[in-house]
Amino acid sequence: MVNSLSGRFLILTIIFVMVAEVLIFVPSVARFREDYLLARLERAQIASLALLADDMIEPELEKELLDNAGVFNVVLRRDEIRQLMLSSPIPGEVAQTFDLRDASAWVLMRDAILCLVDSEWTVIRVIGDPFRDGGELIEVTMDGGPLRTAMIDYGLRILLLSAAISIITAGLLFLAVRSLLVKPIKGVVGHIGAYAEAPEDARRIIKPSATVRELREAEESLQSLQTQLTQALRQKDRLAQLGGAVARVSHDLRNILTSAQLFTDRIEMSEDPAVKRMAPKLVNSITRAVSLCESTLAFGRAEEPAPVMTLFNLAELTNEVLEAERLAIGEADVSLSEDIPAGLMVRGDPEQIYRALSNMVRNARQAIVATSQPGEINIAARIEDADWVITVTDTGPGLPPKARDHLFQPFQGGVRKGGSGLGLAIVAELVRGHGGNLRLARSDETGTCFEIRLPMGDVG
């Protein structure tokens, strides 16, 4: 109960209402005291009228008048004359004098608190204005004990009434909070639990129904989150299924390419000059295709295999990439160039670097061809600080904003219609395997530039 939202709200409501009642208590008690003393002054003034009507009254009648007024004596000032109208023996010295004429609210509240806490005020003097212009001043001496007792009794009744009001108010608020807040919140929690059991089931996505604006906003946010999560889980399931299919295709394709590789061995023995010139490139292409199939099968079991590090000539590898790409260009007006020092040696896995550069050049070529405009692709390299920096630059149309948001995410960063979006994701993973990073250096209407940074490390 105490740890629940409604329980804590109930306790806080009781506390706050009691605090409010306490703030009301002091002025109420002060007003009660003032009315009490004014009533004594009025009775004393009425009692003094008997003496004004008859200068001489019997002692018994005087005592009865004072007892009825609840005072020891009465002093009335009329026509600038101060006159003791009624009197009786006073049981002690006057402990305190209170003047009710033009007393401020603060003074009345202060005197009321002092009266409650001090039980030794047995005799007090009270000064006030006579009622109905019956004089200039009236002063009485009275017992302070009954006043204090009456104030305590009144205060207890106020506190009991405040407690009852607090409990009733808190109970009503408790029921309102449970109905308007706690019940809808529990409903949202129940929806979350049901959705967690089967997040792929779109029927379990929450449907906003709250009438309270804040709760409805929370339900709408939860609905959006659950919708995105369900779609992401479905996509991952499709990717898993696609991965299984690709693995099976790669397995069969590897067998076909292995057979083709056996035929290329015989082609190399041909005496035809053209065949001799093309045969090594054909062998290299088939070898890389077999390697790609094997890597794809490995990817289906885990991630990209760890690179086999070795020192290789980057310029020679780049030339192979560009030569293979020239065959795919055909009649398109796309020129390929490289700006790499002839003796630049790079430490890495040549097969994986070949795949990375080939993917990037292919993407650039496809982007340029799609515009039906001439273009250029350039691969450059340099040494900067402790890194080898390889850039692939094209003069294509640049990347659209949507592609930049998911550039290196599989199946989401595709630019070309019908593209899978795998190319840059594969490149990024291959570069990360070398301890490097791939980033988009520039992309605008003049073209796009990607930058690969490979740490040099120990090249010895």
UniProtKB/TrEMBL annotation:
InterPro entries (alphabetical): HATPase_C_sf, HATPase_dom, His_kinase_dom, HisK_dim/P_dom, HisK_dim/P_sf, Sig_transdc_His_kin-like_C
Name the chemical reaction catalysed here: ATP + protein L-histidine = ADP + protein N-phospho-L-histidine
* Annotated EC: 2.7.13.3
TM segments? none
Into which EC class is this enzyme placed? transferase
List the GO molecular function terms: ATP binding; phosphorelay sensor kinase activity
* Pfam families attached to this UniProt entry: HATPase_c, HisKA
Q: Which UniProt keywords apply?
A: ATP-binding, Kinase, Nucleotide-binding, Phosphoprotein, Transferase, Two-component regulatory system
Q: Quote the PANTHER family the UniProt record gives.
A: PEROXIDE STRESS-ACTIVATED HISTIDINE KINASE MAK3, SENSOR HISTIDINE KINASE
Q: What is the protein name given in its UniProt record?
A: histidine kinase
Organism lineage reads as: Bacteria, Pseudomonadati, Pseudomonadota, Alphaproteobacteria, Rhodobacterales
